[in-house]
Amino acid sequence: MAKRSYYDIDDILAGQERVPCVLRVDLDGLGSAGSGAASKVHRDARWALPYWMADRLNEEDYVDMEVSPVFSKRANRMYAASPESIQLRAICQHFYQFGLQLGDVVPEIPHVLRSMYMQRIQRVARTAQQGHNVEALDFVQGLDKTEARMLKLCQQAESAVADWQQSKAHTLKKASVVSS
Amino acid sequence: MAISSRQQEGFTMPELEYMAQCESIAIVPLYRMDRLELVRGTVGPFRPPQKTEVPLWLAVMLKRTNRCRIVAPSWLSYEHLYKLYKREEEPDSLFTKLPQHYLEIAYMLLTHAEDDVEDSQAIRRLLQDLREVRQSKTQRGFEMLNPTQLQMDNLSAAEINEIRPLFRHSFDMLRQLDALASAADGTQSHQLQQLQQYDDSQPYSELDDAFSPSSYLR
């Protein structure tokens, strides 16, 4: 189990990502929890459970957890081929956090994530410096939560000096939560 | 305490400006004044034609009330900055040496004591150019990103502040990923080792049995 932060809301949300599981026991009256409408679920039925639940049930041998399609062999090859053009947001909102949680289950994930992160974060830094342009729009829209937050921080840091020189830094502003 | 996300990520520019105000600078007082006992030390006495070193905030205050003339630091001259700019522009050059708070000091002097700086307009433009060249250089430094260390010499406080969030978060992410990777490799190699041990022991086990001390003693 990777080190988890108890108060990190993104970490909790990432654990909500569903992973495919195969049931190993018969369950009575729990059919509505899974995909079927029947009240009884038999063993070998396939269920998509949130990772936090699947991990626990897997430890106690109620289910067999399978590798999430987000990190399947095929997906990993895709990430390695063109890390910058992948729409991570469409695949998984909390891609990196989820990957960190799955890291000790699937040993190749850290390597895949690492090379991907290195390439994409450099592009994020470049994008933050260039300001708004149409070219980067596709890339920006495909960022996952970790990267999107990084982009915002970089842009803020970038504009801090200019704001200060135009003496905007001293003025009080409406918080973004209030104004939007 | 509620602090803004920007403050969590390092210093804000007003904070850096405040820090820069403690740097000392030379002034030429226009009036006679006794020495001043300040918390951080004594300054003065002020005898008109003589130069005195005072903190920047005091210099700005005196300048505003027309009681002194600020002597611009030697690096804040067109020739010096132009030389630095040329050196900075060379391909594969390192960062040139500038004071830690050069951006803040220059800004404050150019706002409050513009008449004491020669060629202030040209210097303003040159500083902007210098900043842009250095910025593109830090940008190239991102390619050296790794989880252990990052070396960029002679970066000023404001410039460090600018890249701080990026490096802070990416260091954190890379560190976590590397820990995971080494943990995964560790268990793999551990399993492999066990497997090899098992393979190695196989051919000898039957032989060993015959001559093992336990069978001899039995």
UniProtKB/TrEMBL annotation, chain A:
It comes from the Eukaryota. One of its GO terms (cellular component) is GINS complex. Residues 7-57 form the DNA replication complex GINS protein PSF3 N-terminal domain. It is found in: Nucleus. Signal peptide: none annotated. SUPFAM superfamilies: GINS helical bundle-like (SSF158573), PriA/YqbF domain (SSF160059). CDD domains: GINS_A_psf3, GINS_B_Psf3. Pfam families: PSF3_N. Keywords: DNA replication, Nucleus. InterPro entries: GINS_bundle-like_dom_sf (IPR036224), GINS_Psf3 (IPR010492), GINS_Psf3_sf (IPR038437), PSF3_N (IPR055221). One of its GO terms (biological process) is mitotic DNA replication initiation. Its main location: nucleus. Component of the GINS complex. The GINS complex plays an essential role in the initiation of DNA replication. Belongs to the GINS3/PSF3 family. This is DNA replication complex GINS protein PSF3. It comes from Coemansia spiralis.
From TrEMBL, chain B:
GO terms for biological process: chromosome segregation; DNA replication; double-strand break repair via break-induced replication. Residues 12-71 form the DNA replication complex GINS protein PSF2 N-terminal domain. The keyword Iron-sulfur does not apply. Keywords: Chromosome partition, DNA replication, Nucleus. Residues 188-218 are annotated as: Disordered. SUPFAM superfamilies: GINS helical bundle-like (SSF158573), PriA/YqbF domain (SSF160059). Residues 188-202 have a biased composition (Low complexity). It holds the Pfam family PSF2_N. Component of the GINS complex. This is DNA replication complex GINS protein PSF2. It comes from Coemansia spiralis.
